[in-house]
Amino acid sequence: MLKFVKNHMESITGIEIYPMISLLIFFSFFVILFWWVITAKKDYIKKVSHIPLDNQNTTEL
Q1: Rounded to whole angstroms, what are the CA distances from 34 to 22, 23, 27, 29, 30?
Q2: How far, in Å, CA of 19 to CA of 34, rounded?
Q3: What pLDDT digit, counting tens, does each position of 2-59 carry?
Q4: In this structure, are residues 25 and 19 in contact, taking their beta carbons and an 8 Å threshold?
Q5: Residues whose CB is less than 8 angstroms from the CB of residue 53 and which lie 6 or more positions away in sequence, other chains included
């Protein structure tokens, strides 16, 4: 099965760019996420971290 997929993929022209694009998107996402975490304000982090424990906004169904 893998040999069939590999041989089929080799016959497609221009397919070698897709792994590079995938790696670039993956790397960019984590660099942006890391930048956001480093530059986030401490007050915002504290406020958001208490949301799951906040019982004032819960509604019963």
Answers
A1: 18, 16, 11, 9, 6
A2: 23
A3: 777 778 778 888 888 988 999 999 999 999 999 999 998 989 888 888 887 777 655 5
A4: no
A5: none
What integer pLDDT is reported at residue 48 of this predicted model? 85
Q: Are 9 and 15 in contact (CB under 8 A)?
A: yes
Phi-psi region of 53 (alpha: psi -120 to 50; beta: other; left: phi over 0): alpha
CB proximity list for 9: less than 8 A, separation 6 or greater: 15
Residue type at position 52: P
Instruction: List the structure tokens of 22.
Output: 């995938």
